[in-house]
Write a structure and sequence with these properties.
Family: Belongs to the RecF family.
InterPro entries: DNA-binding_RecF, DNA-binding_RecF_CS, P-loop_NTPase, RecF/RecN/SMC_N, RecF_2
Helix content: 40-55%
Distance between the termini: 29 Å
CATH class of one domain: Alpha Beta
Number of helices: 12
CATH topology of one domain: Rossmann fold
CATH superfamily of one domain: P-loop containing nucleotide triphosphate hydrolases
Oligomer: single chain
Bound molecules: adenosine-5'-triphosphate
Shape: globular
Largest sheet: 6 strands, mixed
GO molecular function: ATP binding; single-stranded DNA binding
GO biological process, one term: SOS response
CATH architecture of one domain: 3-Layer(aba) Sandwich
Function: The RecF protein is involved in DNA metabolism; it is required for DNA replication and normal SOS inducibility. RecF binds preferentially to single-stranded, linear DNA. It also seems to bind ATP.
Strand content: 15-25%
């Protein structure tokens, strides 16, 4: 879905904003600290009910205010039906209030499925060098959107894993009980891994063609490590590691330890690439996910690109703009200076410009 209208109240430094964005490219220009990232944060919140820079949602409430509200009207393609989505959080509230199409959603997954959002910000390179957990989140975001059975399998897997870990931690090595949970872990874990492998298989060619455009490289590898000994089935691996796991008090191998790795010419990408090149590799991964999403499900991903010009030269900025325009989803791009974002577009007349100043957001023409 795309965002037809977006309204914010008391969100970070934005007291009040009401935007009608374009279904394609939206450019937000403003000085440092004007509120551009805050707007992206609000859209991210609508999809995942969490911020990409604060652990506590209360931090998003404007100082001296009681609560924030983020409200959007979502629409799918040319469909005239609007799907209202609102999120509110107060200083005193125990819970975040969410209403989607007039009722409380069954879970965050319902919002994520309705509004798939991808963020590319100046920290994007961290996906390559950060913890495997971030890369698993990246991978599972994609699998979740294209494979409806992934989520229930993942939940069952997590429940069983928790039970096994609890038995191990309490030193209760009752083989029968362990076997029960290990069977469930193995059943769901093998299935989750199959979904992940199939997903990676489908992602590779899309990633390859984007990487070719961004960096002009052919010799790359997008590897997937499933999280346990490749010569064993998961059930065998769990059985073999019981004693070691009991010593540690948790399960050390399985899909909860999976990882992905990008290498070029046989070297890990993060070790041989510049910061700008790493940003392009991560962008290629995220754009490939969006492309795969639309091929498999017909859904479009909303892209949030914070400070697009950072670390990129003019040539690579242009390629980035062309790629974004071609993927036809809704995109919100921020930048400090309009000149850095003014060129490289094939259809500049379709772009919507917004000026952000001291928390005020106004539509405008290209400066
Ligand atoms: N809860 C809050 N209430 C009021 N203001 C806040 C709150 N949290 C952050 N701010 C302020 O909001 C301003 C906007 O921050 P934001 O990161 O959105 O700016 P930006 O336009 O993206 O800047 P940059 O170009 O430097 O990345 C900052 O000055 C920040 O100090």
């Amino acid at each position: 879905m795309t965002i037809r209208r977006l309204q914010l109240q008391h969100f970070r430094n934005i007291q009040s904003a009401d935007l009608t964005p374009a279904a394609g490219i939206n450019l937000l220009i403003g000085e440092n600290g004007s509120g551009k990232t805050s707007l992206l944060e609000a859209i991210h919140l609508l999809s995942l009910v969490r911020s990409f820079r604060s652990k506590k949602l209360k931090n998003l409430i404007q100082h001296e205010s009681e609560r924030f509200t983020v409200f959007a009207q979502l629409a799918s393609g040319d469909d005239q039906t609007l799907y209202p989505l609102g999120i509110q959080r107060g200083q005193q509230d125990e819970e975040t209030e969410i209403l989607f199409c007039g009722s409380r959603p069954s879970g965050v997954a319902e919002l994520t499925a309705a509004l798939p959002v991808q963020l590319i910000n100046p920290d994007a390179f961290r996906l390559l060098e950060g913890s495997p957990k971030e890369r698993r989140q990246f991978l599972d975001w994609g699998v979740f959107h294209v494979e409806p059975s992934f989520m229930p399998q993942w939940q069952r897997f997590q429940r069983a894993l928790k039970q096994r870990n609890s038995l191990l931690r309490h030193g209760r090595i009752d083989p029968l009980q362990l076997q029960l949970w290990e069977q469930e872990i193995a059943r769901c874990g093998e299935q989750i891994t199959l979904f992940r492998e199939q997903y990676m298989e489908a992602l590779r060619p899309l990633f390859a063609s984007l990487l070719k455009r961004f960096l002009d490289v052919d010799d790359f590898k997008l590897g997937f490590q499933r999280g346990w000994d490749k010569n064993m089935e998961l059930a065998e691996s769990l059985l073999a590691s019981r004693t070691k796991d009991a010593e540690q008090g948790f399960t050390q191998s399985g899909p909860q330890r999976a990882d992905i790795r990008v290498s070029l010419d046989g070297h890990a990408a993060m070790e041989v690439l510049s910061r700008g090149q790493q940003k392009l590799v991560v962008s290629a991964l995220k754009l490939a996910q969006g492309a795969l999403l639309s091929v498999v499900t017909d859904k479009q991903c909303v892209y949030l690109i914070d400070d697009l010009p950072a670390e990129l030269d003019r040539h690579h900025r242009s390629i980035f703009c062309e790629v974004l325009e071609a993927q036809q989803g809704q995109v919100f791009i921020t930048g400090v200076e309009a000149e850095a974002l003014a060129t490289g577009w094939q259809q500049p007349e379709k772009i919507m410009w917004f000026h952000v100043e001291h928390g005020q957001i106004q539509p405008g023409v290209q400066p």
